[in-house]
Automatic annotation (TrEMBL):
UniProt-listed InterPro entries: Acyl-CoA_Oxase/DH_mid-dom, Acyl-CoA_Oxase/DH_mid-dom_sf, AcylCo_DH-like_C, AcylCo_DH/oxidase_C, AcylCoA_DH/ox_N, AcylCoA_DH/ox_N_sf, AcylCoA_DH/oxidase_NM_dom_sf
Ranges for domain Acyl-CoA oxidase/dehydrogenase middle: 132-227
Organism this protein belongs to: Eiseniibacteriota bacterium
Family: Belongs to the acyl-CoA dehydrogenase family.
PANTHER family referenced in this protein's UniProt entry, alphabetically: ACYL-COA DEHYDROGENASE, ISOVALERYL-COA DEHYDROGENASE, MITOCHONDRIAL-RELATED
Protein's UniProt name: Acyl-CoA/acyl-ACP dehydrogenase
Residue ranges annotated for the Acyl-CoA dehydrogenase/oxidase C-terminal domain, each copy included: 239-377
Keywords, alphabetical: FAD, Flavoprotein, Oxidoreductase
GO molecular function per UniProt: acyl-CoA dehydrogenase activity; flavin adenine dinucleotide binding
Domain of life assignment: Bacteria
UniProt cofactor(s): FAD
Pfam families for this protein: Acyl-CoA_dh_1, Acyl-CoA_dh_M, Acyl-CoA_dh_N
């Protein structure tokens, strides 16, 4: 059965972009889907050979300028990649997705010529990855005030503290560290971002154990034990790390919204197939029942609405006309709606939905990450409502 999501995507895209999306879908069907269950049962991360194949397909350099060996595409191309790979597995899709939107993107936007020349070619080729060091054990939603510190030391800085929930840490060559550099500064001008090599002797990485979501994605804890770096490692401007962080996360939130819709698309196709094949009560398909039809239609409506809204917002992002609240709102609604409807989709399918080989449980687990990743929905609601209540915005802050 053809993917229902394709019916909604094709009219929104030019022929070349839709062909790219279909090519990545084919890659996912042929190279990822047949191996996914084995990876899960063996408890392994995305294997190196699969990462190499994604690199050869150009997925790590989608948005990198051609002069640095990339594909020269826009954020829309990255979203399409996430929709295509996320249909089978969010944790596979987030590997090139986070590498591009959280790792490469801040370097593209804020890196100086020397930094771009040193790193972008290998990043575009998938020979290395950057990981974005943002979340901390004591800082989740309050990411603007990091506990990791960077203090001046002669002609450089000393970085101390720990980052956690760092996607792709297992494969990262460098970490972009968001650190507090001016505690007494005004809000939004207290932190700085640094590019730190992961093989620095005072940088210590450990894969986080016990995680039951995004099973094939690397999620690491990175500790900085008095790490000394020079001024040349600053990404962007000193004490302007908040700007780097916010700009990076806006694009990441759109990618997370896309992953939510990819899971929703999978659930819709799984349910409408099951409802027509599963016979019960007088040997007739369960799809004849109104309650089953209602859920399937709700899945379809949510997918159609979400795809239309997401593509529109991504185009605004690429044009530089998207406001911060738009990225938050589309991420909130897509992740929330997909999570709610996936539970109903599992009810339609009954006990078989609990089996790993059926696929719905994988997406149910992973959708939780979409609700809390790139800023939790609760925190993003607080930020997004401020323009609607300008008279009390100072109280909300």
């Amino acid at each position: 059965m053809a993917r229902q999501i394709d019916r909604y995507l094709e009219p929104l895209l030019d022929e070349e972009r839709f062909a790219f999306y279909q090519a990545v879908c084919d890659f996912g069907d042929q190279e990822i889907a047949p191996r996914l269950l084995g990876w899960e049962r063996e408890h392994v991360l995305v294997p190196d050979d699969a990462i190499k194949k994604m690199s050869q397909l150009g997925l790590f350099g989608l948005t990198v300028n051609e002069s640095f060996g990339g594909q020269g595409g826009q954020h829309l191309d990255l979203i399409l990649m996430g929709l295509a790979l996320g249909y089978h597995s969010q944790s596979v899709a987030i590997t090139p997705g986070a590498a591009a939107s959280l790792g490469t993107k801040p370097l593209q936007l804020f890196g100086n010529p020397d930094q771009k020349k040193a790193h972008l070619p290998d990043l575009a080729a998938g020979k290395r990855m950057f990981v974005f060091g943002l979340s901390e054990p004591g800082r989740g939603s309050d990411a603007a005030n990091p506990e990791v510190t960077a203090t001046r030391d002669g002609d450089g800085w000393r970085i101390r503290g720990e980052k956690c929930w760092s996607t792709n840490a297992r494969w990262a060559s460098h970490v972009v560290v968001h650190a507090l550099t001016e505690p007494a500064g005004r809000p939004g001008h207290r932190s700085t971002c640094f590019i730190v090599p992961m093989d620095h002797p005072d940088v210590h990485y450990q894969e986080m154990e016990g995680k039951d979501v995004w099973l094939q994605s690397s999620t690491g804890s990175i500790a900085f034990d008095n790490v000394h770096v020079g001024n040349e490692t600053i990404l962007g401007e000193e004490n302007e790390g908040f700007k780097v962080m916010v700009t990076t996360l806006n694009g990441g939130r759109l990618f997370i919204a896309g992953l939510s819709l990819a899971s929703l698309a999978f659930a819709l196709d799984k349910c409408r197939t099951y409802a027509q094949e599963r016979v019960q009560f007088d040997d007739k398909p369960i799809g004849r029942f109104q309650r089953i039809q209602d859920v399937i239609l709700d899945l379809d409506i949510a997918l159609h609405q979400g795809i239309t809204w997401l593509i529109h917002t991504v185009r605004q992002y690429d044009q530089g006309s998207m406001d911060r609240e738009s990225a938050s709102k589309v991420k909130i609604e897509c992740s929330r709606r997909a999570s709610e409807l996936l539970l109903l989709a599992m009810e339609i399918c009954g006990g078989v939905a609990c089996l790993d080989e059926f696929g719905l449980m994988r997406h149910m687990r992973d959708l939780f990450v979409c609700r809390v990743g790139e800023g939790s929905n609760f925190a993003l609601k607080t930020l997004s409502v401020r323009p609607l209540l300008p008279e009390i915005s100072s109280i909300l802050e």
